[in-house]
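User: Sequence recovery, please. Input:
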């Protein structure tokens, strides 16, 4: 099964994608399922609205879409309650976006949300690459604090901090690398050598990037077909199986 670990459906500040168009894109790329993130304003402020919207899409298309849940940690107890609610209603994973939500990855402010994710065995996707809020080595510190949680390093620190992704991933074995916006030779092939293909997750970040392009880049990596299959879906399927066991 091929799984895209990060897409957005809805009308954000810079992009608009309707569910039907996303399904067409997935079919043309051979993607069976995709994890949907709330859009920008839903990540920052309107958490419940965003969670309910992507949960409804996942329920409408249960064989194709899975939902991310989010909560802004500045809402404190209300954020914990909202994340508990959304995961309890079937969200597959947690997404955090430090620049949009106004916190730094290393701040203890976010710890209560990670503890909710740990209780639900939910993987946590964290946007990285935006200084000073979201850097790869900051995610390492968080991952080492919560070794029982699987983290996905969204965008692997790109564009300016991609070089830090390698030591960050080496130091914390519970972080999975992300393929979005990467190159087959410079980034993905090196990641395979550094951490192994079993810790690399495919995501297109569609519509910011293009799903067709991102899939073809993974298919161009010089690894075995079995390793490509793991990157394109097997590794994410394993994380989801742990979440819903």
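Assistant: Recovered sequence (245 residues):
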């Amino acid at each position: 099964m091929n799984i895209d670990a990060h897409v957005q459906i809805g009308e954000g500040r810079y992009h608009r994608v309707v569910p039907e168009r996303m399904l067409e894109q997935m079919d043309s790329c051979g993607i069976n399922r995709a994890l949907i993130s709330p859009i920008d304003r839903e990540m920052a402020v309107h958490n419940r609205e965003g969670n309910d919207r992507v949960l409804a899409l996942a329920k409408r298309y249960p064989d194709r879409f899975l939902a991310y849940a989010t909560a802004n940690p500045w809402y404190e107890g209300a954020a914990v309650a909202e994340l508990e609610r959304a995961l309890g209603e079937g969200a597959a994973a947690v997404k955090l976006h430090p620049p949009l939500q106004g916190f730094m990855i290393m701040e203890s402010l976010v710890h209560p949300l990670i503890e909710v994710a740990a209780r639900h065995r939910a993987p946590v996707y964290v946007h990285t690459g935006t200084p000073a809020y979201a850097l790869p080595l900051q995610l390492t510190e968080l991952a080492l604090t919560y070794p029982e949680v699987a983290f996905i390093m969204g965008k692997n620190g790109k564009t300016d901090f991609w070089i830090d992704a390698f030591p960050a991933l080496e130091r914390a074995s519970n972080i999975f690398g992300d393929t979005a916006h990467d190159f087959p030779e410079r980034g993905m092939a090196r990641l395979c050598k550094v951490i192994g293909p079993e810790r690399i997750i495919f995501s297109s970040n569609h519509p910011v990037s293009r799903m067709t392009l991102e899939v073809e880049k993974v298919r161009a990596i010089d690894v075995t077909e079995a390793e490509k299959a793991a990157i394109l879906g097997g590794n994410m399927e394993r994380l989801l199986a742990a979440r819903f066991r």
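The chain has eleven helices and ten strands.
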